[in-house]
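Q: Here's a chain of 74 amino acids. Please give me its 3D structure as tokens.
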Amino acid sequence: MGILKEFVTFTEGLDAKEREHIENMLHHFMASHGADMTLTPEQEAEDDRRFNDPNPKYASQADIDATCGRPMPS
């Protein structure tokens, strides 16, 4: 049995409230991966520039923690 069939079987065994929660998450996941989620040529160029940067700069752990509003594991 494939993983999708296992997932369907699993969700069919959930109560209605749990199943509705899973359905909502799946709906949002699918919506966020639609055809309109492609990069513009400018975004692709920026990605290429950043991926090819020989001296990339990263956010500090303090900046990450501040952005997330809590300490994050490093």
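Q: Can you summarize the key feature?
A: The chain has a mean pLDDT of 89.
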